[in-house]
């Protein structure tokens, strides 16, 4: 029985192909073209993976116990672990793995009716997902344009900061549509291995600490020599590294003590801090927090970042690297002001007071290094100039953002029309009209549209620092050469041949290329397969 046919005719990719790609019903385009962003600083590539093909919207099907899935939706705050079957389908790959861990993800995000999720593949039992055994599905409920976090990731790649990669996916659970999500790396020990160390098995990972904020903040203020003296949800150790199990924050506490003792008037501040932290990476991260209005990150909120003590950098046991995360509250989303302040006036570091929400408390790493030390401040301003001159300007960013908007349009409309599965204390109920409008203008709950934010902020920085933004779009540095198992996230072809990262695997139980049986050419052929595929939304 024909339920519905598509209003267009599908074609083979070219004359040499004998099959179509794996395609989604009523989506005429499967693989999109994306304008590339220019490289500002030398990038370091993660290991290759087929997980994050950013020119496609893949589909994930989860099959689990019906009662358990309902329990997960009704009580997401319970943090229960559920065992499910996971199937991932993009244009070329079909991957299935059984007995995968599924949980709801986040903290405040659990208050929403559209949940975020995380999956864990147990590498001890041979499970993997294209060398990425820990992934999250970000619900994007704070972003009507649905592109803010992905744009932030793209710019992190441009400025050479090791970061989560991301690609959009559709999620179905027991054949029910849950919506459009941004799939990203979940920052765990596996992320450190594959992204920071390029899949190198010989490196013993260092101390990895996750920072968050609620009533208290991960402000890096020294409070004493013992882990017990620090807020446990503000500083969560993901990997002890060289710190003892009895005092897992020991290395970070030593860093905070150095920060407390540091005199900002010191003449050798750059040399001092460059042995303790990847100073260039930190300054670039802070420049992006300011440029993109990251209200829920370290500078403004003392939250949503990791610090990793990389043993391959600097002196014995290495130095710290800064890893931002959860970048949806950017480009005017959640921004606390109706205007854009200069970086020197962005945050009031007076003691926190609920009666005065703009008083944010201490941030000694910002205050002592960027705002009070002349040498590091000059270095920070040079970073701002280089980023704005190269990548953070309308001429470079707008084509990418507009391409994402076109790519997501049909799936955003689908997502925004779905009935959510959780009760939710919050539901922003963004509309498709807001999805379209927030790209170019201020809409409900937003202080800016995405493109106006880029234009206004880049112009403000150029005026404040007294320089002219050069015309044209060009790499400031050449992309790094391909190295063995490492892959450029911008090059979709780079991650196709061969095995994913070292010891990565990732073909699951029924993976590999889709076969000739998936050839579908036009509406007549849809009549044969549609009844079986409509329920899961995938044309196979």
UniProtKB/TrEMBL annotation:
<feature type="region of interest" description="Disordered">
    <location>
        <begin position="476"/>
        <end position="514"/>
    </location>
</feature>
<feature type="compositionally biased region" description="Gly residues">
    <location>
        <begin position="501"/>
        <end position="514"/>
    </location>
</feature>
<dbReference type="Pfam" id="PF08757">
    <property type="entry name" value="CotH"/>
</dbReference>
<protein>
    <recommendedName>
        <fullName>Coth-domain-containing protein</fullName>
    </recommendedName>
</protein>
<dbReference type="InterPro" id="IPR014867">
    <property type="entry name" value="Spore_coat_CotH_CotH2/3/7"/>
</dbReference>
């Amino acid at each position: 029985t024909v339920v519905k046919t598509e209003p267009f005719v599908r074609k083979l990719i070219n004359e040499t192909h004998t099959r179509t790609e794996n395609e989604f019903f009523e989506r005429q385009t499967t693989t999109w073209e994306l304008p590339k962003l220019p490289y500002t600083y030398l990038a370091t590539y993660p290991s290759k993976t087929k997980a994050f093909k950013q020119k496609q919207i893949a589909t994930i099907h989860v099959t689990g116990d019906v009662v358990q899935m309902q329990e997960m939706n009704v009580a997401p705050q319970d943090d229960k672990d559920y065992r499910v079957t996971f199937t991932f389908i993009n244009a070329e790959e079909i991957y299935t793995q059984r007995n995968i861990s599924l949980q709801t993800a986040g903290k405040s995000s659990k208050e929403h009716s559209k949940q975020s999720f995380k999956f864990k593949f147990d590498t001890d039992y041979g499970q993997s997902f294209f060398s990425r055994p820990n992934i999250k599905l970000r619900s994007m409920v704070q972003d009507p344009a649905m592109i803010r976090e992905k744009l932030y990731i793209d710019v992190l790649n441009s400025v050479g900061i090791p970061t989560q990669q991301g690609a959009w996916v559709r999620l179905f659970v027991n054949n029910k549509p849950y919506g459009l999500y941004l799939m990203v790396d979940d920052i765990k020990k596996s992320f450190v291995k594959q992204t920071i160390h390029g899949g190198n098995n010989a490196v013993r990972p260092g101390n990895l600490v996750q920072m968050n904020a609620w009533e208290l903040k991960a402000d890096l203020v020294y409070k004493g020599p013992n882990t017990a003296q620090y807020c446990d949800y503000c500083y969560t150790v993901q990997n002890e590294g060289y710190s003892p199990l009895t005092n897992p924050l020991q290395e970070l506490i030593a860093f905070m003590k150095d920060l407390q003792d540091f005199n900002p008037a010191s003449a050798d501040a750059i040399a001092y801090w460059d042995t303790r932290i990847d100073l260039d990476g930190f300054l670039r991260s802070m420049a992006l927090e300011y440029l993109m209005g990251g209200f829920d990150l370290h500078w403004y909120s003392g939250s949503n970042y990791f610090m990793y003590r990389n043993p391959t950098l600097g002196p014995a046991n290495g130095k710290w690297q800064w890893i931002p995360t959860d970048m949806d509250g950017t480009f005017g989303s959640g921004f606390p002001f109706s205007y854009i302040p200069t970086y020197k006036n962005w945050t009031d570091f007076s003691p926190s007071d609920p009666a005065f929400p703009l008083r944010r408390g201490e941030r000694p790493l910002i205050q002592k290094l960027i705002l009070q030390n002349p040498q590091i401040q000059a270095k920070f301003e040079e970073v701002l100039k280089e980023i704005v001159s190269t990548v953070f300007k309308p001429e470079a960013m707008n084509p990418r953002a507009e391409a994402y908007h076109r790519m997501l349009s049909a799936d955003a409309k689908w997502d925004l029309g779905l009935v959510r599965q959780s009760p939710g204390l919050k539901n922003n109920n963004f509309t498709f009209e807001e999805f379209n409008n927030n790209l170019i203008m201020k809409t409900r709950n937003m202080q800016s549209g995405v493109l106006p934010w880029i234009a206004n902020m880049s112009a403000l920085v150029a005026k404040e620092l007294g320089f002219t933004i050069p015309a044209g779009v060009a790499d400031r540095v050449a992309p790094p050469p391909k190295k063995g198992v490492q892959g450029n996230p911008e090059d979709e072809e780079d991650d196709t041949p061969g095995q994913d990262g070292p010891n990565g695997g990732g073909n699951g139980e029924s993976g590999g290329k889709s076969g000739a049986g998936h050839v579908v050419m036009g509406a007549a052929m849809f009549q044969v397969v549609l009844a079986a595929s409509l329920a899961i939304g995938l044309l196979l």
